[in-house]
Design a protein that fits this description.
The protein is mainly alpha-helical. Helices cover 62% and strands 0% of the residues.
Length: 151
């Protein structure tokens, strides 16, 4: 069978087929999975910032649990969530701009967020489970839409 080429691509091998441009994740703004992950990272980071501010501002916001293995002062937890939330939001901005470093950083930070929220379970179980689910979708979206083409 013969294969026809589009009018603009006669004889040129550009490395990507015209129909595959949306799957590569390249270009100025990243592909759909990356944008989805960036939106979720923004949401997760904003919620982490709010968690951190609430824990730092007043220790009465969160209920104290009995003896727990990962027991920290609530102010320390607040700072952990605040710093992690800021880093996550900054990484989301990098993803919106199409930076490849932000993809790897997003996967790592979502993993750290999962660990922090797992240890946060006794203080706010439903909130922590929600953030854990969001982080799972972030990692899935970033890994499944990763292009192996160089920038």
């Amino acid at each position: 069978m013969s294969q026809q080429t589009p009018a603009g691509g006669q004889g040129k091998n550009t490395g990507t087929a015209p129909g595959n441009a949306h799957r590569s994740g390249g270009g100025g703004i990243a592909g759909g999975g990356t944008v989805f992950a960036a939106v979720l990272l923004t949401l997760s980071g904003a919620l982490g910032i709010l968690q951190g501010i609430a824990a730092i501002a007043e220790d009465d916001v969160y209920a104290r649990v009995g003896n727990y293995v990962f027991e920290f002062d609530l102010t320390a937890w607040g700072w952990i969530h605040l710093v992690l939330g800021i880093l996550v939001v900054l990484t989301a901005v990098g993803l919106f701009k199409g930076a490849n470093w932000a993809r790897a950083a997003g996967i790592c930070l979502a993993g750290l967020s999962m660990i922090a929220n797992f240890m946060w379970l006794p203080y706010q179980p439903w909130w922590a489970i929600t953030i854990l689910a969001i982080d799972v979708f972030i990692i899935w979206a970033l890994c499944s839409s990763w292009s192996h083409a160089s920038d």
